[in-house]
Amino acid sequence: MRRVFIGLESINPESLLGARKKQNKTAEYRKMLLEWKRAGVIVFAGYILGFPQDTPESVLNDIKIIQRELPIDLLEPHCLTALPGSEGHQRLFKAGAFLDPDLNKYDLEHVTTAHPKMSAKEWEKLYRDAWREFYSLEHIETVMRRAVATGISTGNMLVLLLWFHICVVMENIDPLQGGYVRRKYRQDRRPALPVESPFVFYPRYLGNLIYKHIKMAQLAWRFWQFQKRLERDATARAYTDVALSTDFGHDADSFEMFTAHPAHPAEKTAAV
Question: What is the pLDDT of residues 195-207, one digit of tens each?
Fold first, then answer.
């Protein structure tokens, strides 16, 4: 196995219980993830934004904790969405809560219901900020260092990280909807919008492609050089940090992911 996707969902035990994710034990996250890293597997993880307790500040702080304390290579944050037909959707419908009537928005990227602590605009901004925070250039370097230390191909990891970073930062889309070139067609317009002149559409489209390729080339060159430095560094295989540390001590509270969101007694016992 080379890659695994894990529904991490949250590092807050209360949020997991509210979502009926009782099988997700935050106290077991680190042990499980370190076993995957021991096997040299690239770890993708899903993360849900918009639980009732969430605020922009708390979520972005949790993203930083994940970066620092959990050996996750690629995180996929998505908005909490009551998909039509699900139990959550039925519960909200019966309670008379707002549910966006446009089914095109139920893609885990758009806000489709109200939140007790965030406006729709704050929630949507949080979605974009969470992606950008995790795929910062500094954290990409950290993930690359961890790849070397755990025997994962740095070339493969670099392609994945740059793909996600470019989709998020340059294209402003979910990486799972992205590719190498964003194709656009002049006559593909919403009914209420006029079709643009070819003398406007094509020069702008071409200029945009050239600009993005220049930025992609700059990023690729920067991280290709970084990759080569890691491969030449005799000490790179010995790299470690909090996320890769197997020294749990005897107290789960030594990690911020537990102090920020105290685990239930059963989970804390499992962690110890």
Answer: 999 999 999 999 9
Adjacent-strand bridge partners of 73: none
Contact of 34 with 259, CB cutoff 8 Å: no
- pTM, two decimal places: 0.85
Whether the CB-CB separation of 98 and 119 falls below 8 Å is answered with: no
| Spatial distance between the Cα atoms of 39 and 45, rounded to a whole number of angstroms | 17
> What CA–CA distances, in Å, run from 256 to 56, 120, 260?
18, 29, 6
- Asked if pLDDT for residue 127 goes beyond 50, the answer is yes
Structure tokens at 262: 């105290």
Tokens 């996707």 -> residue: 5
Q: What is the mean pLDDT of the chain?
A: 88
For residues 139 and 69, give the distance between their C-alpha atoms in angstroms, rounded to a whole number.
12
Q: Encode burial over 179-202: b for 16+ CB neighbours within 10 A, e otherwise.
A: eeeeeeeeeeeeeeeeeeeeeeee
Residues 48, 51, 56, 59, Cα dihedral to 10°: -50
The CA distance from 113 to 90, in Å, is 13
Q: Alpha-carbon distance 36 to 59, whole Å?
A: 25
The pLDDT tens digits of the residues spanning 216-258 come to 999 999 999 999 999 999 999 999 999 998 765 545 556 776 6
Q: Which residues pair with 6 in a beta bridge?
A: 45
Q: Are 85 and 93 in contact (CB under 8 A)?
A: no
pLDDT tier, 269 (very low <50, low <70, confident <90, very high otherwise): very low
- Of 68, 74, 36, 75, the residue nearest 240 (C-alpha): 68
pLDDT score of 168: 92
Cα 167 from Cα 29, distance rounded (Å)? 28
What is the Cα Rg of the chain in Å? 21
| The two three-digit tokens of residue 128, written as one number | 């974009």
